[in-house]
Amino acid sequence: MRSTDTRRWELDALRGLMLILMTTTHLPTRYASITGQPLGFVSAAEGFVFLSAYMAGLVYAARGRRDGELAMRRAFWGRAVALYACQIALIGFAFTVIAGLAVAGRQPAVTDLLAFYLAQPLTAMLSAALLLYSPALLDILPIYIVFMVVSPLVIMHGRRGAWGWMLGLSLALWFGAQFGLGPLLHGALQRVVALPVRYQDMGAFEILAWQFLWMLGLWMGATRHEAGQKPMPPIPRWMLLLALFMALLCLVWRHAIGQVPLPGVDAVNRMFDKWTLGPLRLLDFMALLLLALHFGPGLAHRLPRLRALELLGRASLQVFCAHLVMSLVALALLGATTDQRSWWIDTAVLVLGLAGLWATAWATRALERWRRGGAGRVGSAVRVRASGAPR
């Protein structure tokens, strides 16, 4: 997403912040319990998915209006191909380097994570190539790929007035996911085509639940552009007060009790479940979203540009992949988080991990500038030759 007319620095900065939070959560250090879900019972994943969908709707809907629906489809599908290439590279790295390190070091944190691959390597490799097998940590890009493939069709139908029923269907799928619709469909399909992968090996994220966040962001981004960047209507005061109450309640609750809402009370914990995007978790996210929509524009005008975070957000795909590589390497070498490990080691791992994020983002920006400069030099040379001027 490189459109200069629709790119907004504050959205890039927010995505950069989400990438930092994801890194601190996934690196096996004790800082994960401190920085995880800092705003309540909402993780960086929810914010990252929603923001990515919003920017996709904003940028690609603009391309569809400017260049036509075919150009928009090609842009979406081209991004899906890039995501697939990244997923295959990450899977290959995990199945070779990471698996080798874990087996040699007898590291259960990784051998358990890759248990299906270690038991059935050929089936796992073929299933991973088909996006059926997705080990933990490597299960977010596959759902992004599905979202990217479907999104142009969604936007095209939305522009024809179908947003209402599509959002209703999306909400119904989220509701079904709360009652096991995903495993039910997997079981039905299993009886027809004998899928080689168990449902629990297809990834922790329930795609039928998380698609709702994507649909919501895509709708807001696409219709925002169609509205011509007009100011959004004011949010009712009663709604803001309810959102503030919910956000503050979850914030205090999370930091008073911990990341598990009520230890030992499964019925309540399921309502805040991350993987199925439980009802109370979704309400917490919606409360934070309403507050961000109301107060965000004013803050964006008052705050200085957060260029360090913006840099990360602009290279979000490369930085996301780098954070996964570093997290897997740390798991393979150090194992899971433990109180027996020195705080100095945990601090060093975290500092090196964050430094790796900015190094990746800086290298990505440098490479893009070099490519643009090379393209500019080639174009200048062509124009000179065409004009007959001496070189």
TrEMBL record:
Transmembrane segments: 12-29, 41-61, 81-104, 124-150, 162-182, 202-223, 235-257, 277-296, 317-337, 343-363
Entry EC number(s): 2.3.1.-
Organism (species): Hydrogenophaga intermedia
Enzyme class: transferase
Lineage start: Bacteria, Pseudomonadati, Pseudomonadota, Betaproteobacteria, Burkholderiales
Pfam families: OpgC_C (PF10129)
PANTHER family membership: BLL4819 PROTEIN
GO molecular function: acyltransferase activity
Protein name: Membrane protein
Keywords associated with the record: Acyltransferase, Membrane, Transferase, Transmembrane, Transmembrane helix
InterPro entries: UCP028704_OpgC
Domain of life according to the entry: Bacteria
